[in-house]
Amino acid sequence: MDTVVTAAEQSARLPVVVGVDGMAATPHSVDLAASEAARRGVPLAVVHAWPGRPVRPSRTRAVMPARAEGRHLLELAARRARHAYPDLEIVTELADQGAAQALLRWSARASLLVVGHRDETRSRYGWGPTAAYLAHHTECPLLVHRGPAPSRGPVAVALSGARTPTLAMACGEAARAGCSLVAVHVRTKRDDQRFAERLTADVPVQRLLISGADIPYTVDRISWRARLMVAGIGHKGWAVETVYGTPGVTSAGRRLCPVLLVPPNVKALAGKSAVPK
Predict the structure, then answer these.
(1) What is the pLDDT at residue 241?
(2) Average of per-residue pLDDT across 165-189
């Protein structure tokens, strides 16, 4: 007898994918991705992009070939995830292409994509080129790790319009975390009415209706008070531009909360959370 598999069941099997690059933030990104995969009951895919550049030999120490270094990095990441979650199904890939292209390919068949940020104090954006590119092109929700998520505080959502998928996912994250939702929204007559109609009463909601000039300051302040910032990836683009325009560390040295970016037409999976607990 053939087994009928529903679309929801198929989507629930999609893996959580994490990109690793050997930077200092990589172990924390792996921890976050592994916890998400275990919570969702799906496999974890660990991806490292090997650009194919040869490594020059060193006179002082032996250097492994670049491809061997990539495999070693994947092995360490998989071992770390398996130590925390022994029953977790883990797959690895050493991709022969750029990091952004490899992760974008994975995003078409993933339930969540997890990457770390890279602070670039002298550049325009603080996330680095890979995370910034994926922020605009990912096909699945993108979770950017910017430091340990605080255990308290609200879930915040930044919206450039009344985007149903973003609102639904933000409300779901707040409900599962047992906290309130802070909704930052640019004040317009048309969007304000749609926004009010689509808010759910499942969680306490604080609305911040602001002008366009107040966007950068408001998003920055909320980013270091919230446990998670949710933003929609839409045509207007101000939410994404503003969120990844802030660095991962404040001037006082405090880490900013993770950011969950939601592409258009993405359906939030019931019972799945991106909020670390």
Answers:
(1) 61
(2) 82
| 276 in a structural domain | no
Rounded Cα gap, residues 238 and 160, in angstroms? 6
Alpha carbon distance 115, 123 (integer Å): 19
Spatial distance between the Cα atoms of 107 and 15, rounded to a whole number of angstroms: 10
What's the whole-number average pLDDT of the chain? 76
Residue 48 included in any domain: yes
Judge if 82 and 194 occupy the same domain. Answer: no
What is the pLDDT, as a whole number, of residue 124?
Answer: 43
Please indicate, yes or no, if residue 217 is contained in any of the structural domains. Answer: yes
CA–CA dist 260, 69 (Å, integer): 30
Q: Does the pTM of the predicted model rise above 0.85? A: no
Of 145, 178, 201, which residue constitutes the final position of a domain? 145
Average pLDDT over every residue of 192-196: 57
- Apex 86 CA angle, 82 and 87, nearest 5: 115
